[in-house]
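1st attempt posting a full record on here, be nice pls
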Amino acid sequence: MKNAFEKLGFFIQNNRFSVLLIAFLFIIISTQGAQLIEMKSGTETFVGKDSPLYQDYDHLYQNIFQTQSIVIMVEGNEVKSADLMKAVDRLEHQLQATDGVIETTSPASLIKQVNYQMIGRYTLPETDKEIKAIIDENPAIFGQIIPDNTHMLISVVMAGSATDRVQEDILTATEDAVSFADFPPSYNIIVTGDPAFMVSMNYEMNSSMGVLLGLSAVFMVIVLLLVFRHVRWSLLPLPVVLLGIVYTFGAMGYLKIPMSMVSMSAFPILIGVGIDYAIQFHNRLEEELQEKGNKTKAVIETIKHTGPAVLIALAMTALGFFSLFTSTVPMIQDFGQLLMIGILMCYFSSIFVGVATISLFDEYSERNPLKKVVNKIKPSNSEKKQKSEEESQSNRLIGRILQKTTNTTLKYDVLVLGIACILCFGGFYLDQSVPIETDVQTFVPQDMPSLVDLKHMGDIMGGSDELNLIIKVKDTANPDVLKWIDRFSEHEVASNGHIYSATSIVPLVKEKNGGVIPDTSQEIENIYSQIPEAQKNRYMYGKNMLLLNFNIGNAVSDIKLVGIEELTNIVKQDIQWMPAPPGTTVTITGNSVVFMEVLTALTTGRVAMTFLGLILVLAGLLVVYRDWVKALVPVIPMFIVIGWSGGVMNYLNIDYTPMTATLGALILGVGSEYAILMMERYFEEKDKGKSPIEAIRTASSKIGSAILASGATTVFGFMALLVSPFPMISDFGMVTVIDIVLALLATFVVFPPLMISLDTWRDRRKGLRTAEKGTEIQKQTQGAEI
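the predicted structure (as tokens):
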């Protein structure tokens, strides 16, 4: 491997300008690709499209029956007003001409329908008294859209499969139509609904992305000035890693990886992880330039030795991240793809652009005609020496502290390992009681105006969560089927406290037939012909499919997905107890039901994901080292940290979300590097003839400050997540920062006694085997002599 990297070093040094030109061209290409990135926050980001639950939802409900509604809520002292209804009528006329709008429903249009039935004129009455009389005399018609004298709802209906772009266009058209409708000044108009909330959330995600990246850059400047000041151009690793982020954005667009609430947090993480690669190359190249003076040789040596070492660390990180692909939650899979692509891009940026740039900077600094002037300003050799001594004293102080820590852990090795294991398994136990949150409304900033409006509408109108029952029949006009729907609906509403109402084609049929269902199919067909197509299509598809909706209020917030799952099972049992007519099948679906799969993915799925990551990292280390001790020792401390992490989440009352479910894989991917670096130095010192205890002490004191600096860069990268306006991301950032600190703690506290114990035990076993083998040979020799 080193021979290949040595050749790569020759190539980079001899083609520095070409390398940088190609890097610049890739920036242009990546910028074009970044424009192709789509923002996604819907159901498809939570549930895989190959899931049977999602396919039922998508094929049977979303593409056939589901509609989405932008809701215009009107607030005022008295909404049963003729002037207000005229403004609503003007609004509807504008919206009905908008592309993508299926229909609009408002008190004004319903009043005109009632007026037409009464006097044969499809117009609005002129006086407040007439308006009020029509509304008050028809509570069944107006009860849902005029809940009281001060509130009114107008619904702008679009297809359930409408794209994010179409939803945004209709929302903009609705807001424009509200301003042109000339509502009376005493009324407050609020445009809300799920589409408005989703559009607003996508915008908030997009704008907060820039803030997160900016803060990551600021934090990186701080940490580089603190821990990397001993080299020239100490801030250079930051633009190098940001270049890798630019390339990642481009790849994201070309590979059609959507931007979601989870994937947007990948970039601060990549800055924290990827900058370590740039620092490693930068630090080694500066060291080689000072020692050898020969630029070509310095570049070749840097790439020859650092390239493979960093690549191995990257491979172990990638194996930890690879387990994210096993999740059934699409946004977690996208998160894994971004992390895998991102660390590769940061590596390529570091090895090509970083090394070439430093080499050119060094060459330019020697040719700079102002160098003599600058040298006069520069500190003298004695000042440099003093500064160097201060820095080395600082490093020695850290080294002494770490060495004392190692001595203490070795002295009380059984106690240290015992406490670590007890806390680990205690954390795994507490982890089982950590709740799971999948309500999208809790993931976003709670002061986001669209969320405030949506909650305000829910307080007035009640929740809009539903269970949707797709009923496949031989004939939609079969009276037995309609009578069963009627009986079953009444039973479920009466017997289940969380089912508040039921809607289907049945009430429309009964309304046209004096409150009863006809006894013959022909009579039902005649009634169907009288029902407007827009109303009929909401509950009936062709001749073989009907829809029954159960309103379950704010179930996602109130009883969570666990409660919805229990409620769904109760409905299924009731269907068995009160079976539908022969030849009829009932499928329970809907957004709430589909999200139950997310619950399973975040419970059993995240555990499987974590243990797969452990197995992959262990297998990767076995392949690299071909030594079970070297493979096992870096993994055990990270396993312990994963257990600690469960305890931390329980203590901080942080729920599992699609983001925090990835913590196990992240700890493995990021934290295993620290233990690997410690182990490498331990065996290096041991190969020099030192005893195991001397070797681990030297490793802790010599490489400890470097590991702390590397950990600091990672922690600072993750810290940007803490200030995210999205609670899901800020909680994730908090737990991750704590976990990285715990990973460093495990490296300096748990790793040394574990390393010594396993390595000494193995050496003792080898010694015993050698002694036994020697005794056996001696006996065989004596036997031969006799």
